Amino acid sequence: MAIQPATTENINRAAQKLRSGELVIFPTETVYGVGADARNTEAIAKIYKAKGRPQDHPVIVHLAKETDVREWAAEWPPMAQRLVDMFWPGPLTLIVKRNLQIPATVSGGQDTIGLRCPSHPVAQALLHSFGGGIAAPSANRFGRISPTTAAHAESELGRYVECILNGGASAIGIESTIVDLSRGYPVLLRPGQISRVALQEVLSEPIRTADAQAPRASGMLESHYAPKTPMYLLSAADITKKLQSLSARQTPLAIYSHSLPALDGQGLTWKAAPVNVVAYAHDLYADLRQLDQQGCKQIWVEAVPQSIEWQGVADRLFRASR
After folding, report:
1. CATH superfamily of this structure's domain 231-320
2. Residue-level pLDDT at 156
3. pLDDT at position 145, please?
4. Which residues, 6+ apart, have CB-to-CB distance to 30 below 8 Å?
5. Exposure of 45 by Cβ count < 10 A (0-12 exposed, 13-18 middle, 19+ buried)?
6. Which DSSP helix (H) or strand (E) runs through 270?
7. For 50-75, what is each residue's pLDDT tens digit?
8. Pairing of strands 298-302, 231-234
9. Alpha-carbon distances, residue 47 vs 18, 39, 50, 98, 138 (angstroms)
10. pTM of the shown model
């Protein structure tokens, strides 16, 4: 399926494809998603098949900003509304109790549901034209690098969809923050651009860390967001030390680090990693995808700072690495 500009005509055509039970790829501010009618179990099944996604791994339902969330949620706690008032539209997914009229397939069979209101204008235009919720995980094969451009998404899932809307490169570049509110207290399931500190400031209470009883949610598996080439997280010192002990001619490497390492020999590919967290998140998946195509045997990534603002990026790197 060819990539199409996000004109009003093409957006309306994509909405009609969704109503017909087909899949559509569309941009959000985080990454590109592959969407289906969230009330159509057969259409949702097509997402799982296209991605090679386990049936018990939930997808997120995207909503227009005027949507009455009670159509989707059996319970809507006050803390959910406080977070919505501050962060929607935006890169925040809330896990709440699912309205039992909504198919359990969107939730991997659980009694919860993940809801998000994206801020990307093309996503909002599609949601308005469609007139309902769109179930949409990232538009890539399951466990692989998420797409942040229409071309990335086309290379991953183009043959499975009826329409690909081009909305430019995703502004944020990593997936939404996910907060579980289904158990009476807030739990951070997946970090993202919206930090734990920002969430706590709105709720005026601590945000707990995910435990064994947390509902399953997108991106929580130990291995995720990974290139096909084996990837390893290393400190800058370890990169230097390991380079001294390797023959680059025998072990072609791709290195993603803040500063140029001492490249002794041929067979080493280096790409500069941004030092600013916003730029790093924006570039991360595109850069990993580029390094993954270099034909190297390994990708070495310099570990990022452990401070709060880097938590979302650090989470993606940890899950992508060996």
Report:
1. Threonylcarbamoyl-AMP synthase, C-terminal domain (3.40.50.11030)
2. 96
3. 97
4. 91, 118, 170, 172, 173, 174, 175, 176, 192, 193
5. middle
6. strand 268-272
7. 999 999 999 999 999 999 999 999 99
8. parallel
9. 12, 13, 5, 20, 10
10. 0.96
